[in-house]
Amino acid sequence: MKIYTEILGNVNKHPEWREKLAKMDVDEIFLDQWTAQKSRFFAKGLSGKEYPVALSRGYHIADGDIIGYDEESGTVIVLRLKLNPVLKINLGGVATKNPEEIIRISLELGHAIGNQHWPAVVKGTTVYVPLTVDKKVMLSVLETHNIPGITYDFEDGMDVIPYLAPSETRELFGGASHESHAHTHDHGHIVHMHDECDCHHHHHHLDDESDSIH
Questions:
Q1: Degrees, nearest 5: CA angle 136-158-23
Q2: What residues form DSSP beta bridges with 70?
Q3: 86-192: same fold as 9-82?
Q4: What span, in angstroms and rounded, lies between the C-alpha atoms of 214 and 199?
Q5: The predicted structure's pLDDT at residue 176
Q6: Is the whole-model pTM more than 0.90?
Q7: What's residue 68's pLDDT?
Q8: Which fold, 86-192?
Q9: 30 CB contacts (<8 Å, ≥6 apart)?
Q10: Which has the closest alpha carbon to 126: 82, 189, 187, 169?
Q11: Tens digits of per-residue pLDDT, 27-47?
């Protein structure tokens, strides 16, 4: 069985590939956000075929990456990312208040998020929280706390990516939320406001321990 080890190009970034794909049979592999962080995994295309992938460690898969191209058979294999929506909390209205109010409201929000063991990424006056439970549950938590001055809504994960650093992207989409943390810390505006998360995610990969293909 052929193992796919290289990214040949990207249909979103390289116009020449878009032209080629127009004339070829494209099999798309839709990866969830957890699998996309892996370097080695099995994935099934829309055609039903299963592909073993073994990329260089440290490579971050992007939507539209091409892992297979066969001109003779006229086939192309493209990776597609399915990113969860992100809860976007806007504190822009709070920023104009006096320092005491800003501190109080920020602490209230931190308490609301931390009490749910949700991680968060802070960018300016915006707080991004990854979708860890049902949307209605997350909205219910904020409505229950009724924190004045903030607005919030869900935004498509792909729309958030351009505003994030790689480390922040991993925090929101890379499964970092299910690691255990016993403290609150801030590294480059990534704030872990949870002790531990009991989230269980299904990983489509080859080997939990070694992450290797056998």
A1: 130
A2: 75
A3: no
A4: 28
A5: 34
A6: no
A7: 95
A8: Alpha-Beta Plaits (3.30.70)
A9: 46, 80, 81, 82
A10: 189
A11: 989 888 778 888 899 988 888
Residue recorded with tokens 């931390």: 114
Helix (H) or strand (E) holding 184: none
Residue with tokens 């069985």: 1
Residue the block writes with tokens 């498509």: 156
Q: What residue segments make up the domains of the chain, in order of their start?
A: 9-82, 86-192
- Please tell me the predicted confidence (pLDDT) of residue 207: 41
Cα–Cα distance measured from residue 112 to residue 117, given in angstroms and rounded to the nearest whole number: 9
CB 24 within 8 A of CB 73: no
Low-confidence ranges of the chain (pLDDT < 70): 166, 174-214
Superfamily of domain 9-82 in the CATH hierarchy: Urease metallochaperone UreE, N-terminal domain (2.60.260.20)
pLDDT for position 174: 61
Model confidence pLDDT, tens digit, residues 5-21: 999 999 989 888 888 88
The DSSP annotation for 25-44 comes to: EEEEEEEETTGGG-SEEEEE
Look at the alpha carbons of 167, 173, 177, 183 in this order and tell me if their dihedral is positive or negative.
positive
